[in-house]
Amino acid sequence: MKVVSVNIGTAVPSDFGLSALDKRPVQGRHPVTEFGIEGDEQADNDHGGVYYPVYAYAREDLDRWGRELDRRYENGSFGENVTLSGVDIALNMLLGQFWRLGEVRFEVMGPRIPSPAFLTTVGVGLEAFLDAARPGVYLRPILGHPADVAHGGVEAGDDVEILWTPQEHITIGESWTACLGDAETLRRILELPGHSPAWDALAEHTIGAATPQP
């Protein structure tokens, strides 16, 4: 499992307001802060902050979309900060799991919910994106661990490895079903320590509670 590319972008005016979805590959090692890849700007309210600062997508999934839509997707085309290879994000990444990308450890937070700006930028219809269940994943940097490199960064070619897996196994693919209304899986997610407040907000909207049900 490898980092294929590190991608950053600048917020610019678009038909949907400010957008920083146009991410371009950058050379060298880029430091990571609690708010994401240094030099990257974020304009989407659903992408950023301390819970969702880094978005990752698989090179293999970009290639699948390319074959299905007969077009070429370059690294960063889906607005991802990190393009990965050798990992099936939907099947192999678990909520709450710790992964190391290069010199930085990250916590797996959840899948991306596509906005109209995102779908227009990548050229994929909403129904197709929902049915494909290849949403990519948001990661939260875990900084300051004694075993980590101080002020560590990520660059193309870095190894990717799993550091720790929680007892409760909820894949990104399963969490995607929760985003689409699977109340049982959503209740399981609410049991995970340290889950993003976005899951509580979704629970209040879909099942009327932000706490696990008996």
Description:
By secondary structure, the chain is an alpha+beta fold. It has a single domain (2-168), classed as Beta Barrel (M1 Pyruvate Kinase, Domain 3). The chain is 26% helix and 26% strand. It has seven helices and 13 strands. It has helices at 59-69, 89-92, 116-122, 126-132, 172-179, 183-190, 197-206, and strands at residues 2-8, 12-14, 17-19, 24-26, 30-33, 36-37, 54-58, 82-85, 98-101, 104-110, 137-142, 153-154, 160-164. The protein has an eight-stranded mixed beta sheet with strand order 4-1-8-7-11-10-9-13. A hairpin with a 2-residue loop joins strand 2 (12-14) and strand 3. The longest helix is centred in the first third of the chain and has 11 residues, at 59-69. The relative contact order is 0.19. Residues 210-214 have low confidence and may be disordered.
CATH class category name: Mainly Beta
Structural class: alpha+beta
Helix and strand element order = EEEEEEEHEHEEHHEEEHHH
Can you tell me the CATH superfamily? PK beta-barrel domain-like
Which word captures the global form? Answer: globular
Helix content: 25-40%
The average pLDDT is 90
Distance between the termini: 39 Å
How much of the residues is beta strand, in percent? 25-35%
**Which CATH architecture is right?**
Beta Barrel
CATH fold descriptor: M1 Pyruvate Kinase, Domain 3
Q: Number of folding domains?
A: 1
Number of strands: 13
**Could you list the spans in which at least 5 consecutive residues all have pLDDT below 50?**
210-214
Strand adjacency order, main sheet: 4-1-8-7-11-10-9-13
> What is the helix tally?
7
Largest β sheet strand count, sense and barrel closure: 8 strands, mixed
**Rg value:** 16 Å
